[in-house]
From TrEMBL:
Biological process terms in GO annotation: ribosomal small subunit biogenesis; rRNA processing
Subunit organization: Interacts with small ribosomal subunit protein uS11. Not a structural component of 43S pre-ribosomes, but transiently interacts with them by binding to uS11.
Protein name from the UniProt record: Adenylate kinase isoenzyme 6 homolog
InterPro entries: Adenyl_kinase_AK6, P-loop_NTPase
Catalytic activity: ATP + H2O = ADP + phosphate + H(+); AMP + ATP = 2 ADP
Region (Disordered): 1-28
Pfam families per UniProt: AAA_18
LID: region residues: 117-127
Composition bias type Low complexity, residue spans: 18-28
The UniProt record lists the keyword Kinase: yes
Similarity comment text for this entry: Belongs to the adenylate kinase family. AK6 subfamily.
EC numbers: 2.7.4.3
Amino acid sequence: MMAPDSGKRRQRPNKLVTGTPGTGKTTTSTALAEATQLRHLNIGDLVKEKNLHDGWDNDLQCHIINEDLVCDEIEDVMEEGGNIVDYHGCDFFPERWFDLVVVLQTDNSVLYDRLTKRGYEGSKLSNNIESEIFQVLLEEAKESYPENIVMAMKSDNVDDISRNVSTLTDWVRNWHPPS
């Protein structure tokens, strides 16, 4: 018989797919969810749908995310397991939630084109390009999670995305709950 305080272990893994806006997080996460039957949690969409923010940043043209509200909103499903979390930040999520943290990286000229097509300009465009140049999200992931679960993946084109989805699908198939 289990002790009352011994929580049940996740039977399906949780992954975080992070990276600078425009690196292919949502495209990769959507394809990976289809291939693995894991639940895709797009945090940007969730913030808008559930008002998990503290207003609007006019300079960066985005919502000011309330990290506590986001974590409270998804805590139960994260504890269940079987999730792919898609967001450009990672340092506020509890370390215990993730079995793998994927940081997508894109060549700056490719990223510049993607972001300008999205209408990014001014400080929003330059901040995101600089973030990619200086590998801010990779460093954030390495500082926030055990380095052995952080994986950087190139995401410049459709072939890269397909290869990444295949690699990550294999990882899910081979994952075993920690003992």
